[in-house]
Write a structure and sequence with these properties.
alpha/beta, 7-stranded mixed β-sheet, 6-stranded parallel β-sheet
């Protein structure tokens, strides 16, 4: 196995110069750098990552803490993070906080103790302990998917990236209203999550834009998971005047809602129209095909990596919040004719 000494000898430079090229610890002339890189390739030299981290205080690793990794939405975010990290020569350490505030703080502490250079976190509904730990230890961090508001009027010290939530949800409501529905229900997510609050705000904005009154009985919480969404949908269907259309606020709750409708012998869209926040790979294979809001999940992951690397390069720059547009995917669960012959997507910012 080739050593750094072998690389230095082959390139005709000192071991220190090889180290500077590998670790970017000092400028090196372009021709000299290229000679070192050529020697590394010819000798098939593999740097000692542990030794490098001791020199640079960097491990070139990123901690990723995301709940419900089995959820297709977060799986695509993971793919975006992984691709962005690998492109820049970083590895990932992954943990699932299970949307539990105490467990969240523990897994983030474990990642921190593994000396990751920074973290990307989808925070829970009560992230106080998480934010306190990250702030106390000055851990470079990007929050994704869910926005964490800074206490008081101070600006948040954390970079954040997420999709637009309110306007796309309002679009689903006004679309259903345009089809003649006057009692439009919503199966909302876990209370406390920024995504839940923003999508509820969009739901109410859509009702107002369509000239429809807000009826609190038509808004139920499915807690962002399938089983609670089944129960929440059953509650809506048990009303004396049940909704004729539903908006579900994430893909897991869409599955729960469909289970309840099937158990009741109800047909979509004949008995109840359905629009969903979150598109997913097999939404096009359902019968009917699901009309949905598609989030740019891979791009959210990729942007989180870019924000984190920018933070590592410039620790004192102001924090940024990126909002990415979603797309309306028009299919048939809303009660419209099949749109497959038309352009299926239109961005909603």
């Amino acid at each position: 196995m080739a050593t750094m000494v072998d690389v230095a000898r082959s390139a005709g430079v000192s071991v220190a110069t090889v180290s500077h090229v590998l670790n970017d610890t000092r400028p090196v002339l372009p021709d000299t750098r290229q000679a070192v890189l050529t020697a590394i390739e010819e000798l098939n030299y593999t740097p000692n990552t542990l030794a490098r981290s001791l020199v640079t205080s960097r491990t070139r690793s990123i901690g990723l803490a995301v709940s419900a990794i089995s959820n297709p939405y977060f799986t695509e975010i993971l793919q975006g993070v992984e691709a962005g990290a690998l492109e820049q020569g970083y590895s990932l350490l992954i943990a699932d906080p299970h949307d539990d505030p105490e467990h969240e703080r523990k897994v983030v502490q474990l990642l921190h103790e593994r000396r990751v250079d920074g973290m990307i976190v989808a925070p829970s509904a009560v992230p106080d302990a998480l934010v306190a730990y990250l702030g106390r230890h000055s851990v470079p961090t990007v929050f994704l998917d869910r926005v964490v508001e800074a206490p008081s009027d101070d600006a948040s010290p954390f970079d954040q990236v997420c999709a637009e939530n309110a306007e796309p949800t309002a679009h689903l409501v006004t679309h259903l209203a345009g089809l003649g529905h006057r009692r439009i229900g919503m199966v909302a997510g876990l209370p406390g999550l920024s995504t839940t609050g923003e999508r509820i705000a969009g739901y109410r904005y859509g009702l107002a834009a369509a000239g429809l009154p807000y009826d609190e009985r038509l808004l139920v919480h499915g807690d962002s998971e399938s089983a609670p969404a089944e129960r929440a949908t059953a509650t809506l269907l048990s009303l004396a005047a049940p909704p004729t259309a539903l908006v579900t606020a994430n893909n897991a709750m869409t599955i729960g809602t469909l289970r309840t409708l099937r158990a009741r012998g109800l047909s979509v869209p004949a008995d109840l129209a359905l629009c969903c926040f979150d598109d997913f790979a097999w939404a096009d294979l359902f019968e009917p095909r699901l009309t949905a809001i598609a989030q740019p999940s891979k791009e959210i992951g990729a942007q989180a990596v870019r924000l984190l690397l920018d933070r590592l390069a410039s620790p004192d720059r102001p924090a940024r919040v990126l909002r990415l547009p979603c797309a309306f995917v028009h299919r048939t669960s809303c009660g419209c004719p099949d749109q497959s012959e038309q352009s299926p997507k239109g961005n909603i910012s």
